[in-house]
Design brief:
The structure is a single chain. By secondary structure, this protein is mainly alpha-helical. The protein has a single domain, classed as Winged helix-like DNA-binding domain superfamily/Winged helix DNA-binding domain (Arc Repressor Mutant, subunit A). The protein has helices spanning 7-16, 27-33, 40-48, 76-86, and strands at residues 25-26, 61-62. It has a two-stranded parallel ribbon with strand order 1-2. It is globular and about 30 Å long.
């Protein structure tokens, strides 16, 4: 897959592919994972701009308070919830 995005978006999207099916991480955990610990908001924005959902699984990223956050893929937040439930994530 030839991804198109900013350098930061590409770093985030590459990291998202490493989150195993059935697991979730917070935007902050992703920011720490890409060695940019203060960029949780930017991570959320990169997820929001992800045109490759669900192949690049931004649905596996949630807010620190446990809320789902947003979902840029087709079907919006309802689809995010459906995808997480299909992966047996307790939400």
């Amino acid at each position: 897959m030839n991804l198109r995005g900013t350098k930061f978006q590409l770093r985030v999207w590459k990291y998202l592919k490493k989150i195993p099916k059935g697991k979730v991480q917070t935007y902050k955990q992703v920011a720490i994972g890409i060695k940019s610990p203060k960029s949780a908001r930017a991570v959320a924005n990169a997820c929001a701009k992800n045109p490759y959902a669900p192949k690049i699984p931004c649905h596996r990223v949630i807010r620190s308070d446990g809320a789902l956050g947003g979902y840029s893929g087709r079907g919006g937040i309802k689809q995010k919830l459906k995808l997480l439930r299909s992966e047996k994530v307790a939400i």
